[in-house]
Design goal:
The complex is a heterodimer of chains A (about 325) and B (about 100).
Chain A lengths: L4 E5 L2 E5 L18 E5 L17 E6 L3 E6 L3 E6 L5 H19 L3 E10 L2 E6 L6 H9 L4 E4 L2 E6 L5 E3 L6 E4 H6 L5 E3 L7 E4 L10 E11 L7 E5 L1 H10 L4 H7 L2 H14 L1 E7 L7 H13 L15 E2 L5 E2 L1
Parallel strand pairs in A: 2-3, 3-6, 8-15, 15-17
Antiparallel strand pairs in A: 1-2, 4-5, 5-6, 7-8, 7-9, 7-10, 10-11, 11-15, 12-14, 13-14, 16-17
Helix pairs in contact in A: 4-6
Chain B lengths: L3 E2 L5 E4 L3 E6 L2 E6 L5 E5 H9 L4 E2 H11 E2 L2 H17 L3 E4 L2 E2 L1
Antiparallel strand pairs in B: 1-9, 2-6, 2-8, 3-4, 4-5
Classes of the chains: A alpha+beta (about 325), B alpha+beta (about 100).
Chain lengths: ~325, ~100
Amino acid sequence: MSTSYHYLLCGWHTISDIQLTAISTVPYSGSRADVTIILAESSPLCIDSGCPNSSERSFFRVDGVASYEVLKGSLIRVQPVSGAAKKDIEIYLLGMAWGALCHQRGILPLHASAIATDTGIAAFVGHSGAGKSTTAALVSFSDFELIADDILPISFNQTATPGAWPYLRRLKLKADTIRRLALDGSEKIGERFDERYFVHPKHISMDKWRKLDRIYVLEKDADISHAVIDRLSGVDAVHAFIDHTYRYDCVLQSGSLAHHLSVCSELARAITVYRLRRPWSLAAGHELRSIIRSHLMNQRQGGRSQTPQSGEARNYPGPGVAR
Amino acid sequence: MERKVLGLNSIVQRRNEVIAANAGTDLVMVSVESGSYFSVSEVGRAIWEQLETPHTVAELVDHLHTNYEIDRASCEEQTLSFLQTLANEQLLTISDETST
């Protein structure tokens, strides 16, 4: 009889054939699982790579690691390649496969790192190399609890307030970043990720859903000498969520562009979006940490965009299309 | 690809394959076909809202000329330019056009 492991992930009761080293198990509650993870090698059926992806099915294969099939937001089937490292199998399971699962469950997985503040979650988004994990490391090792690194699954509660459960409260950092920040307690991510390690902050968030308060879009700017934070609104705010959706390919494959756009525009209405530009020279963290900490303390409430008033003839600014 | 040139008598309407959502005073649109995103502000948004049903370009110009302080010639020029951009991005259906 095979062993099943029980976890609470994103608030979902998860039963897995595969032992997950990233999180602690929870006692079996007797309730029906929200998500089931099955090792396909123990099933008489093989994962069918021929069926098309849809809103209820996502399939992908990682060469040398495993094939993953995500079905109806409740089942993940994993077929490992012979000899694949368990850590690598888990990385893609809790990354790409879980991201696809979130999309199927109507959750927006944001490619972000996040911390807990006294006004809610503050998330950091940005393109590869922008410094999401480094920024989260700077503040979660000194001032705030870590909520997530890499994926932040955003959902709405009963009052339509956006928020998130914590997800995998560990940081994925390069070796030189760990050395530069003098962090302790790192473990190698996996066999395929050279020079990257997981670091576990001292302060991690409790397992509970929190409202999302704000996001910072991180950018490096060679033309400035000091970090600058300004507020984004309108289409720029919407694009912050569109551009940093994790596994955006799932949105395209499932034909759910309309829903995705609706969610992103709703988030842009509800969440304050900032852009944090920092000079390339701001490599080490102390100044950046001070700036972020100060901004979090001083900007405790966001505003809302004003809607135009109808009525008499107005000045004509001219139409235009931005792509 | 054949490029459709618009005139004042062209009848235009937005395509059903284009999804839009509010973004403050702006409008964000996505083409379900191409997955490309577009955005328009105030005046462009007002035009897009009119395009829910078919209109001639002249009718759209009339609407804008009534609601904004702008001379008709400039309004025609800018509206045609705007609509041509939307057409080139496959966001509109067009009839009674002149083809090149």
